[in-house]
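Table S2 (text version). Query chain:
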Amino acid sequence: MSSISPHALCEELGERLKQARLNQNLTQSDVALRAGVARKTVLNAEKGKAQLENFVAIMQALSLTEHLDLFLPKPQLSPIQLAKLQGKKRQRASGQREENTGDSTEW
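Corresponding structure-token output:
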């Protein structure tokens, strides 16, 4: 897929949105109402011309957001990054220390 242009990929995503809408037997107006966008926004998204926020709103309207992890999975931390985040691990307990306020006298 890396040889496909960004424009062609956007058009393919738009076609997939359209097919998902048709599979659910929804009109563009139905989806627009659910997504809180204009019908023309849905039309443009189906042509592959949508802002990311509108694209996601349409996906939510079509109940497709569970597919986002397949579309763009969360990156996993490498072992090196994980070690840096953890910092130094404690090697031993320090025990409890008593506060010395200077007011007490030892018996």
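Notes on Table S2: The two ends are 82 Å apart (CA to CA). The chain has six helices and no strands.
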